[in-house]
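Quick one - first record:
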Amino acid sequence: MDLELPGLHGSLGSPVIESMNFLNEVAQQYPDALSFAAGRPYEGFFDIGAVHRYLDRFVAHVRAGAGGDEARVRRTLLQYGRTKGIIHDLVARNLRIDEGIDADPESIVVTVGCQEALFLTLRALRRTERDAVLAVIPCYVGLSGAAELADLPVLPVANSADGIDLDDLVRTVERAKADGLRPRALYVVPDFANPSGISMPRDTRERLLALAEEHGFLLLEDNPYGLFHGTAGRPPALKALDSSRQVVYLGSYAKTGLPGARIGFVVADQPVTGAGPESGGRQSLADQLAKIKSMLTVNTPPLAQAVLGGKLLTHDCDLRAANTREAQVYRDNLRHVLDGLAEHFPPGSSPEVTWNAPTGGFFVVLTLPFAADDALLALSARKHKVLWTPLHHFYGDGAARRQIRLSFSQLTPDEIREGLHRLAAFIGELSAHHP
């Protein structure tokens, strides 16, 4: 039986849905190319032996809690598990140590990556066609894709040097309400946003919290890069400043734990009333997300949680300290990228190329003298053997723009040096054809 794409869910025809697979797999299409494309963690410290040590450490932890009951140990590790997860208490300890966030373990749902946490939250917030989600544009493609799957329109909010244009946010919210829409939440990455690399100053975070409360929408705080900052002081996470439960915190251990374990989580401590007499009439948003998760992935694999839990236990739930080597790699790589760009494209040179200068994270954005799309990326990969990401993937409309994202997280200094040399040759050649 043949199926027609127009007869399937509308999201499948969206360029947004194609973007995630494209970004994940483009390096496999061009294995000889140096890749500034995917924002993956550094692989130089990967250790298979550590996986076994972490698993053993978590088993010992469960055994101690079970009083030596081996049947309970086996059941915890090898049986279907609790929908909210089996490491929620360790996640809560980690948040308190690393982020200064005091979260009730019962307000945490451990998920299959942060992407599931994001989808669960959007699915729960979408009640009718009037509901919408706000996002600073350009933004992480996973937000746009998850919103498509949840049938939520994304209302764009302008970016700024502070990570968001708060005046435009207010205008967008007021315009949406006047049009009969209900903005349920704003998705933000306050620390080294993907793709821009911008971080929000503390006063912007505090004003954003106040505006969210005043205008009645939640903040969906995504924080995969917060531990990877430079030498300057880092503002508190939005959730650490949240005194009115305005923030749903989306967490990931892909960058700070083990990417292959695919462990994320969501802190959703917002009270939900009218939940029925069996619950006393009051539950949390986390309880509602767990209901959806039970019908989506049933539970997050206990073995994957066990490995990540073992890493947390091994490092006393302090992943800032556990990632000292990785953080230094990312700081050094950022410096190599910025120094290399200044060498290849000094002020006043032709072609004129400019870039931003984040103080941490994984990404730098270049502005080019020509529009860059996927066709030019393929040319860059084939002829110059260097990959990067066209910024149109983060706008969701497929329109080529004069900006590209460079991810430097998984490269060595020599690879960065050679990759920038190849990129400069590509830009020089294309600029000659686009005066």
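second record:
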Amino acid sequence: MSNADARLVRTLPPHDKPFGGGREARRSATRRLPLGAALVGSDLASGALSILVAVAGVAAASGNAETAGHAHAGLLLLLLLGINGSLGLYRSNIANPIERFRLRLIGAGLFVLAGVLTWIRTTSTVELVIVPIVGLMAPVTGLWIEHLVRMLLAKYGSYSTSVAVLGTGAESRALARLLLHRPGCGLRPTGYIDDGADAEAGLPREEFGAAAGALPVLGALDGWHAEDGTEVIVVPDYGRVQRSLVTLNKLGARQVLVITRLGDFPMFSLRLRNADSFVALELSRRSGEYSKELKRAVDLIVAPPLLLVALPIIALLALAIKLADPGPAFYGQWRVGQFGKPVRILKLRTMYRDAELRLQRVLASDPALRAHWQRHFKLTEDPRILPRLGNLMRRASLDELPQLWNVVRGDMSLVGPRPFPAYHMDAFDPEFRALRATVPPGLTGLWQISSRSNGDLDAQRAEDSFYIENRSLLLDLYILIATLPAVLGASGAR
């Protein structure tokens, strides 16, 4: 399965409309209810928090707590939820988080417009200020709280849908493994349906089932029926649907999801086009619309204030490093930047001064660790890192804070592929290295809010390619806002 296939599967949601009817469809709809309710609940919490902060801020600024306290808080909250609901934000079939963030921004704009027009003639100027403040805060707090809610739902399987994978060959097994390792997509594979396409001549049934992986073979295509709670059939190849479409319609599953092979073509803007007897996927390339001047302007607006806020934290961490291991608290490291030019990035030291010597000793003594290092360039138990302090700084990415100065200087951007050392870049193919050199490296990026250190070279290539091909102001804003919950969760960080 290609990188683009992996990303496509990761965005497939549990669908709201049944493929078939009857008792199974109704039961599955009941199981999916917590997701929609949780999304409404997360927006209720984020909207209430935004309104509370806005009211308190206006009250403090105006010195008129009584006037600000009588703002139409309840009506504003209902208006915000109503607009988001009308845009379809609470439908479970919108699983792509970037699309959900786009809808939140549209909803915030409509909320500000409707709120101002509604109360402009009946409310004081002080109270009217609350509406745009809420409109600015709601998409940010909404994204943060939704991230937490969806993470918890995925962890406890509260909205996962039971799926059967058609086929038992290598491609079907790869798809099943991907779904098992990505519970956030809401699809939980329970087994395989043998359609005969992958069977080897003379291979006994029990051996064939064992070869299909840890999941069992549920049955043959011509005799199996979805009576065990299986709600969805996932097909890893459109050709299988052509061969088995009539039979698939009789299996009793409410939905069939077909994974279309797009190759290594990581486009975010996909549109379905119907024309008589054929269906087409429209792939739009929009990265050229995001000019380097606009990206640089965003960096210069956001990075200097962030650097001023971070300076006290950087100073305290530098002092703690010196106390833990005497020596320089800061160091510069050469990384590969835009156009392949070397860039010296600033970091707070999280390792011992003889870190490289410690690493080489460990890799020389353990072939398994050496193989893991060559694949990930990370170690779960890294002998180079300062105990407690170093691990804390790396998990929370605090060692990267000095790179805000690199952003101000223009060596880096706030958002982009992380700057890798030359030895790391050499592990990629020349085509990807050339693609990566077309954009400036970033302080944060798509990899940092998703795989982080859990992602191997393939994951890094897929996510960086996706960003480069789809970069836009919307995507940069999403990544910037999503960085905070990713850092606080410290998922995959080492």
